[in-house]
Amino acid sequence: MSLVLDPAAQDLLFREARTANTFTDEPVTDEQVQAIYDLVKFGPTSMNQSPLRITLVRSPEARERLVQHLAEGNQKKTAAAPLVAILSADNEFHEELPELFPHFPQAKDAFFAERSVRESNAGLNAALQAAYFIIGIRAAGLAAGPMTGLDFEGVRKEFLDDDHTPLMVVNIGKPGPDAWFPRSPRLAYDEVVTTV
């Protein structure tokens, strides 16, 4: 059985897509980011929790503040990327559930009254949304450079609050010269899939 999605789109989103390490200086506009979000917001999360929050780092001052919290190998590429996004999980996502999950508005209090339950749900579902966001960046013809080599607590204190947990930093833009490392191997189907 073949996939329904056009092979060129498959290549754009998966086969040819890679983590970019350099970018051109072509700007990434707010309109592009909104188009990306307006596509990927439809990706499923448990009970439509939608806990991902995106902080766009645009000003030079904010960029400098962010770079100091990144691992040394990530600093130069983040300093030069046209746009950088901090992706975080909103641990108070449950406040939006009466609107986002209207057929069971009591879910807010029935399932998510405890902070520890909210944190674990927010982390998992925001990570799903982060993956959708990266695919959306690719669908926009841009490249993503997601990174987790950072001081998470430093980023949280610098840009977020106690109700938000940083997940990753994503550099965004058109790929620059020598943007790609060689493709790393992947596991084979029978190494991953088990039938019981």
Report on this model:
This protein is an alpha+beta fold and 196 residues long. It has helices at residues 7-15, 30-40, 60-67, 72-80, 97-100, 107-112, 115-139, 152-159, 189-192; strands spanning 52-57, 83-90, 143-147, 164-173. Helix 1 (7-15) packs across helix 7 (115-139) and helix 2 (30-40) crosses helix 7 (115-139). The longest helix is centred in the middle third of the chain and has 25 residues, at 115-139. The radius of gyration is 18 Å and the shape is globular.
Q: Which SSEs are present, and which pair or pack?
A:
Layout: H1 7-15, H2 30-40, E1 52-57, H3 60-67, H4 72-80, E2 83-90, H5 97-100, H6 107-112, H7 115-139, E3 143-147, H8 152-159, E4 164-173, H9 189-192
Antiparallel strand pairs: 1-2, 2-4, 3-4
Shape: globular
Give the overall average pLDDT: 96
Strand content: 5-15%
* N- to C-terminal distance: 22 Å
| Major beta sheet summary | 4 strands, antiparallel
Radius of gyration: 18 Å
Query: Largest beta sheet: what is the strand line-up?
Result: 1-2-4-3
Summing up helix and strand content along with how strands pair, one would put the structural category as alpha+beta
Task: Give the % helix.
Answer: 40-55%
Query: How many strands in all?
Result: 4
